[in-house]
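call fold(seq) -> tokens
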Amino acid sequence: MANKQYHIMMFPWLAFGHMIPFLELSKRLAAKGALISFVSTTKNLQRLPLIPSNLQPRINLVELPLPRVEGLPENCEATVDLEENQIQFLKIAFDLLAHPLENLIQEDVPDLILFDFASDWIPEIGAKFGVPTGFFIVFTAAALAFIGPPEELKTGNSRPSPEHFTVPPDWIPFPTLLAASPDYATSLWSNTHKPDETGVSTGQRMAKSIEDCSFIAFRSCDEFEGEYLAVVREFYQKPVLPIGVLPPVPEENKKEREVDSNWSDTFEWLDGQKAKSVVFVGFGSEYKMPIEQIHELASGIELSRLPFVWILRKPQEVHSSDLLPPGFAYRTSSQGIVIQGWAPQLEILAHSAIGACLFHSGWGTIIESLGFGHPLILLPMIIDQGLNAKLMVEKEVGYEVPRNEDGSFSREIVARSMRLVAVEPEGEKLRSKAAEMRRIFNNQQSEERYINKLMEHLEKDGYSKGKN
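ret:
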């Protein structure tokens, strides 16, 4: 493989929690000498982070205009642009990319296509041109073990109602905390098994992707969830390759602090805090937190009396003056900082003042947080986050904020959870175990080995044009 220009096409689902891991994997493969065609829609490519200059000649960003479909608002090309009930229309538009993608492949046939769950039609297109396909799963192996083997993903026969998701599945052969709370089970079950406007369910898409691809790659590692990787290997009966957790590469992300006074003030404030005393708070861009939840969360943060940095996304329909409870900014002016909109999250997490993270349990933020050894205060909201939270509790690196039966949370419980994880003696074990995780989640040598194993697998099994 070292003697040939190995060409890999990347085709992620239109969500930044998917596109970013695909781009990170692209960079690592390009660093090994592969040529990458990273395919997405015009607006999404414009919003991606800059590619390091030394890798730009080997990573080609390829635009496919997103078709217009009824129900999908104009200029909305990623899940972050949409309300949850509009995402099904994005899938309809995404499915319409099959024909232009086939034309693209015909023009320049790659050696391999790495694709995502939503494009379950990719293996069939690849087969027309003799191109093998790898299904790259950006979720944890634990989450995939929980939702089950391909036959179960297609039919849901073993667990025909949301109640079945509230207990660990029979097919996990060891003690596990993986289960969904009653309020979360309904959305997780529906998201997995209920067909949307495209006529198929997410589970059916995933099953077809698993069954039709040449191999499966996970954004994961044996050191952290080897037991769950063993479960999915048994399910899938084809090569399952952990390719590492793909943490950000420090050299690429190192930059001077922003000249913008907003960031200067933030980092000056952090510089003045004690080491490991500040709680990072952030719920990402995908979840649109209702104003009632924002106010309850704010009250909990204030009640904790802990220093904090909160990256807060403002709901579109809410005026900035109504975003936080009356008087919150004044009362917490010396306690913490609220940043509305985008912020340099990775640089904030890297600061020595950060001592814990309160967030939505997204796998990407888990990887970043544990990469710096921060213990996790988990408040999951959507999709796989509830299962991620259970996994982190099981691994003793996080504490899930208890909820009421209806899924709501109270300010008192938020405050108590923050203090338990960040400062109370009961949280010492969590803090210690989380600190140990740096050797797994910020280990570039280990990451290098996983990428080398992936390249060796491709070479050994002849994944190149005409060889599969």
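The mean pLDDT is 93.
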